[in-house]
Amino acid sequence: FTEILSLFEITCDLGQDLCLGDMGTGRGTCVLLNDLQLSIADKYMMSFAPLVERDIIGEKICANMVSYHAEDKECRISDLFTLPTAPPTSPDALVTLEIYHKCLMAYLWLSYKFPATYVEQQVAQEAKEKCEDLIEQGLIHLKLDSNPSVLNQVYKKRRKNLAKIPTPSE
């Protein structure tokens, strides 16, 4: 699918009044979609979804999320992860909570495009709001609201480890 999208971008001529936009942002998602049994139309639509690509946990959750659609099954939030009930007590736990928030945003986006698969739109919205509250409490508790460099170190460490994790198709 990645090759098809690249060819489409190269050969697409929309004239002078329209522009295709930057398709580069969806290429990481395309790699996630390559091996799934989805129509080209579904892959194309999902290539624009705000799926998490640069984090170990987020990539696995999003791969799992997309596989539900490929298998024509309903996807529920509880199938993907469970939100903690208490605010995070470490920078790593805070980053994980932020990834859950990004995954919830992706779920909500997908629920508008594929409502037969992503059926818990209201549950996802409530979980997103709970997640935002926990993140805010965690920032205050960890005193990171004024020192984001600690979180940047956690992000960098997790991105380096991403290359070591096998993809869902392996």
Q: Would you kindly provide a written description of the structure presented here, covering whatever features stand out?
A:
The protein has a domain of 111 residues: Up-down Bundle (Methane Monooxygenase Hydroxylase, Chain G, domain 1). It starts with a helix and ends in an 8-residue tail after the last helix. The radius of gyration is 18 Å and the shape is globular. It has eight helices and no strands. With 170 residues, it is an all-alpha fold. The relative contact order is 0.13.
Looking at this protein, list some descriptive labels:
170 residues; mainly alpha; Methane Monooxygenase Hydroxylase, Chain G, domain 1; 8 helices; 0% strand; globular; disordered C terminus
CATH class of the domain at 52-162 reads Mainly Alpha
Radius of gyration: 18 Å
Low-confidence stretches: 23-27, 163-170
Summed up, the helix count is 8
The helix-strand sequence is HHHHHHHH
End-to-end distance: 18 Å
CATH topology of the domain at 52-162: Methane Monooxygenase Hydroxylase, Chain G, domain 1
CATH architecture of the domain at 52-162: Up-down Bundle
Write down the overall geometry. globular
Strand runs, count: 0
User: Helicity level, as a percent range?
Assistant: 55-70%
Strand portion, in percent? under 5%
Largest sheet report: none
Mean pLDDT: 78
Structural category: mainly alpha
Domain ATP-dependent RNA helicase SUV3 C-terminal: 94-140
Keywords: ATP-binding, Helicase, Hydrolase, Nucleotide-binding
Enzyme class: hydrolase
GO molecular function, one term: RNA helicase activity
